[in-house]
Amino acid sequence: MNPAAVGFQCPDDVRAGNAGVRRPSRRAAVRRAGRRWGPVTLSLIGLNVALFLLTAALAALGGRTPLDNWSSRLFQELAQVPAFVDAGQWWRPLTAAFLHYGILHLALNMLALLVFGSELERALGRARFLTVYLVSVLGGAASVQLFEVPFGQVAGASTAIYGLMGALGVVLVHRRQELRGLLTLLGVNLLISFLPGVSLAGHVGGLVAGAAATGVLVAARRQRALAIAGTAALSVVLLVLVYAGLG
């Protein structure tokens, strides 16, 4: 017999009782996380983390420290460099949005994505949230192509994160909710964007594109065809700006 809070328990009876209790499965835990944080948000975080781990592993295989993941050849082939994009390497503006310079860069961006992404995914829905995210990526990439130095290298999910902040601002205005906290956070982050090595152009481009895309979706929230047409038109304009110099 085992001592219990009240009296004693037979070990065999305890085992028999536990056998009839359904333990939560890993799949159920994943579903709960998806409902809480949003499946699209978690998928985007997973993609960013996976690419970081891949570039870190390739850096280690090349004889360098894994924390210097940007030194891997794959990272160098996927980061956005305006001159290389104009020369025909069209994939760089898209792949660069899922790369990060080291673990701290990754951690800060993924935390922001978790906070803003989960909130917006609940507010907009999965498809519209993903649309805003990708349009923000295009907006940041277009701004980098237009305003950054030709051979400067840019990478990171920051363009999309700024787009999400712009999108959240539009949602709060539409709901007539308080904006001061978001504006303060945005102002601090824009000041940080002036630091050396940070892409101010990419951040502002993502911010404007994310706010514009969300404005279209909110204005046409009851007219699906108009929402699709509006975001498609915005995406086409941004794609033209990104690849205007493609040779």
Shape: globular
Distance N to C terminus: 81 Å
Strand content: under 5%
Main beta sheet: strand number and arrangement? Answer: 2 strands, antiparallel
Order of helices and strands: EEHHHHHHHHHHHH
Radius of gyration: 23 Å
SS-based class? mainly alpha
Helix content: over 70%
Count all strands and give the number: 2
How many separate helices? 12
Low-confidence stretches: none
Strand order of the largest sheet: 1-2
In a nutshell, what does this entry contain?
This protein is mainly α and 247 residues long.
Task: Output the keywords.
globular; mainly alpha; 247 residues
What does it look like?
The structure is a single chain. With 247 residues, the protein is an all-alpha fold. It has helices spanning 11-19, 26-37, 39-61, 73-78, 82-86, 92-95, 102-124, 126-147, 158-175, 180-192, 200-219, 224-242, and strands at residues 2-3, 8-9. It has a two-stranded antiparallel ribbon with strand order 1-2. A hairpin with a 4-residue loop joins β1 and β2. It is globular and about 80 Å long. The termini are far apart.
